[in-house]
Amino acid sequence: MSAICDHVLTNAKVVTMQPGEAGYTVSQPCNIGIREGVITEISAKAIEAHQQFDCQGKLVTPGFIDCHTHLIFAGSRADEFEKRLQGVPYQEIAKQGGGILSTVRATRLASEQQLTESALPRLDGLIRTGVTSVEVKSGYGLTLNDEIKMLRAAKALEAHRKIRVTTTLLAAHALPPEFAGRADDYIAHVCETIIPMVAEENLATSVDVFCESIGFNLEQTERVFEAAKQHGLQIKGHTEQLSNLGGSALTARYAGLSADHIEYLDEAGVKAMARANTVATLLPGAFYFLKETQRPPIELLRQHKVPMAIATDLNPGTSPFADLTMMMNMACTLFGLTPEESLRGVTCHAAQALGYGNTRGQVQAGFDADLAIWDVTHPAEFSYFQGAPRLATRLVAGEFDHV
Ligand SMILES: [Zn+2]
To answer: Is pLDDT above 90 for 146?
Structure first.
């Protein structure tokens, strides 16, 4: 290495999360060279650099990646949560103006700046659990202007915190009240107006659809995927959460990055995902909060070598959790993942679910210097103990959060 590094991290015990068994093994203390935001080398030998940071034998992992959130929204659904526990049926709550449409109303009323600012405490929760990249979906605006406002508010988070934000258009999240009884007309609006505008303005890299009996059917989902493909956007799906419609196989057929939720996924869907290398994103927070009983087919996903990611699904209705390591714990306790699988789920596999599998989610020369430094000795601790802060610091693109 001829050029001098910007930074070197010394005395780092690294869990690289590279493929294979060694990726989950804690290394001997070593040095990590960083130049222009990228890892240049990992070595036992001294590395020449302008600045040196002594990790004091702390554990260094790739920065964690929350690859599925609805971080941007306005309002609160705490009252609805309380009413449900007082025995008020969901239909009654919906009639009183509760449910997802209450979030849509509040989000439409909020300004872009208000949306960004109200999301910061939730983002800070994720950051405290080691997150350096977060995906944020639209889907509470459901009009061209409100969806664009949400995507801009999400991108603006990068100006307030050291974080990388990836935005996904989820205009096909719910049917807006103006289109009641006219789902096909709304899908036409999404495909002909919203997707082209979002693509043109470069406001999102992917398009997502809630493919479900209470969302959009398979045919409508395919129309959205087709429009996304025509406009050069990548594809993700909320699929097989409450029933098996075949949305995951459809996502795979469109070479989708990930199919998410997938509690009701069958073997044909698993095989389709394996062929397309589509990531299975598990969302144990929603499973827990909804008291679901149908578990995702973990054993089939293992057999067919489908990469599994884990995300918070952070949202006000079904997964009010701003804590990614808590989700790792739930993935182990509720779904039976191993701590290694759960750590891969928030690093290398989460990177793949966002289309960054070759640049993020591993500590490796040539990868982005997005790193988390921890007061942790064994990597199983991330999935094990919860609630006690143990993040020492993070680097995003080679820049320290705080030292
Ligand atoms: Zn979601």
So the answer is: yes
For 313, half-sphere exposure in the C-beta direction (CA atoms, 13 angstrom radius) is: 27
Predicted pLDDT at 399: 96
Write the single-letter amino acid at 330.
M
Tens-digit pLDDT profile for residues 169-200: 999 999 999 999 999 999 999 999 999 999 99
C-alpha 292/C-alpha 294 separation (Å) is: 6
Integer-rounded Cα radius of gyration of the chain = 21
CA–CA gap between residue 151 and residue 311 (Å, rounded): 19
How many other C-beta atoms can be found within 10 angstroms of the C-beta atom of residue 294?
A: 14
Distance 241 CA to ligand 1 centre (A): 10
Q: Tell me which residue of 367, 384, 363, 372 sits closest to 126, measured CA to CA.
A: 372
- Cβ atoms of 400 and 52 closer than 8 Å: no
209 CA from centroid of ligand 1 (Å): 10
Q: 120: CA distance to ligand 1 center in Å? A: 19
**Spacing, Cα 92 to ligand 1 middle (Å):** 24
Q: How far is the CA of 44 from the centre of ligand 1 (A)?
A: 42
174 CA to middle of ligand 1, Å?
Answer: 12
pLDDT tens readout for residues 241-297: 999 999 999 999 999 999 999 999 999 999 999 999 999 999 999 999 999 999 999
**pLDDT for the residue 51:** 96
Q: How far, in Å, is the centroid of ligand 1 from the Cα of 280?
A: 13
Q: How far is the CA of 260 from the centre of ligand 1 (A)?
A: 8
List pLDDT tens digits, range 54-74: 999 999 999 999 999 999 999
What residues have CB less than 8 Å from 322, skipping those under 6 apart? 121, 122, 123, 124, 125, 126, 312, 314
What is the 290 CA–ligand 1 centroid distance (Å)?
13
